[in-house]
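Before the break, one more example. Copy the sequence into your notebook; we will annotate it together after we see the structure.
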Amino acid sequence: MKKTAFAFITLVAPFLAACAPVETKTKLMTSAGSQIRSAGPGDVVMSFQSRKALPNIVGGADIWGRTTNAGGTSVRFVGARGSEAVFERTDVVVESNATTMTESPMIIPQTTTTTVDGTVGMTPVSGTARSTSYQFIPPRGSSQYATAQRPITISLAEGRGVNIQGRTLRVVSVGPNSLKYVVE
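Here is what the structure looks like once it is written out:
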């Protein structure tokens, strides 16, 4: 019974994994926590990277977990306007035709059989030799293009925060050319 269950799980697992949906995950690349950080005009205060699962032949996510670039979001401190910090949020979306088929190499085995028949002196001889070689075909590759959305201006007073990609950017203090902030 245990062998049958193991065989069933072994055969069904790849099909279940092939059914996992293709998702895009976004990760904060800059550090977060309760530590107060400082920035000057032009500094990036938050940076996110998005990765999309490679779709397989049946439209599910790659069972090996391979991903492709899906873009990202950056938030830059522009400067101060009175007692408010001014930020610029820029979103970039990357579209790609990458799939598991375009990003996987192929290895094609080629088997050759050689047969020899003849005589040595008066003795008949015959022999067969089999050899296998492999042809490596590199991945076809894919193409992608990036589209930048129009930047969004965000103004925050001291003590105020804004939620960006599930994280909160909170302004601690604002100076003429400096910013103290926390990413939660």
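The radius of gyration is 29 Å. The first strand starts at residue 24 and ends at 28. Try to locate both features in your own notes.
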